[in-house]
Amino acid sequence: QVQLVESGGGLVQAGDSLRLSCAASGRSLSSYGMGWFRQAPGKERAFVAALHWDGRTTDYVDFVKGRFTISGDNARDTVTLQLSSLKPEDTAVYYCAAPLNPLRWSRRVEPRSYAFWGQGTQVTVSS
Question: Degrees (nearest 5) of the Cα angle 38, 86, 116?
Fold first, then answer.
């Protein structure tokens, strides 16, 4: 069983940065790929970023491109999401997710592509 634990959320002001981490246990993250999603109050869980199982290829939803960066540390089984130039509309609970099998890249934005989810970490951005 894979367990994911997010950390690094908090309350910040617009323009600030945060570094979210996702630590995995029960399985190595390498060769599987990972995703980050977020859910704002009253909204559905939405794709934010994904890291391909090759460890290099990444993808982002348009409204975070240039501001967020996803990266992986296979030695530590940790995936990080660096958030910069934060905006109030980035306020949400952020979740990391891992697939059961190597991530199907064509379906990286779909929550159903991921079998394991962390508990989430709250990010609140004040204006």
Answer: 20
